[in-house]
# Entry
Amino acid sequence: MSVIDTLRRAATAEAAAAPSAIRLHARPSPQYATHLEEARAVLRQAAVLGPVSQASSLGAEDVVITDLIRSLQLPITVFVLDTGRLHTETLALLERTQALPGLTVEVFRPRIDAVLDYVLRHGQDAIYESAELRKTCCAMRKLEPLERALAGQRGWITGLRQQQSSARADVPLVDGSEQAAEQASPGRIKFNPLAHWTQGDVWHYIAEHRVDYNPLHDRFFPSIGCAPCTRAVTPGEDLRSGRWWWESEAAKECGLHVRPAGTPGGHDGSPAQAGADARTDHVDHAGHRGHTHHADHPTTPSSAALRRSIRT
Ligand code: SF4
# Structure
């Protein structure tokens, strides 16, 4: 056997042994086909609303949605919030996404004066000192750029799934709660086309359609945010446990997706609600996904009612 053949074999064996999010997670639910059609219907409905953008973190759910938008050739733009603290792997995926034909990808960054002021006052790593300083950082690097990204939009599209955490357990396919809460800028609707998808559905789609994804997912990062605030998860932990891991469950979420308290699925940040996070998906590194309460419920009244509101 030649040296090149030996090297090739070694590379193939190494690739086979390497962890792969697809190998671990790509197991479609029995409702996968329904979920896929539902997501396409929600995106088509969003596209006719007017200016609508997809908010992409470039995570697994978001690359699926972007691929659906491209394959359906919908007039929906994509925007990414580059907080200035993203992983190099995420920035590389952003570049590759921007190069995709038939897609408009806009990047919104925090105001440089706000960043400088924060770092000079509190230090680069003040996020670990208190939940308040962490949330101030999220407000400066995410929420303010988000407001600019959403200016003039009639709606936005997210990759939220009900199974990601109990705070998201009631996420609807179409969410008008922000519209009701923001009387100053009426008309903004949030679309969550993957609301009913399982993690297995997401990875099955990625595998089936050969969608480019963040290699950090292969290193046990199920949820990817800023580098200082994201870590790999360990066996048995739920999918969001790698985010702001030093904080209590009640403090988590960056504010992008906190719905007004009192609305269905609204999160008031209370310990009681956060405590219910025990009911979320978790994963072991052998690829066995576990969850308790809110697996797929395609026939629950709320889901059925929502589906009726979608033109399929
Ligand atoms: S996730 Fe972390 S680094 Fe990113 S904006 Fe929030 S606190 Fe700042």
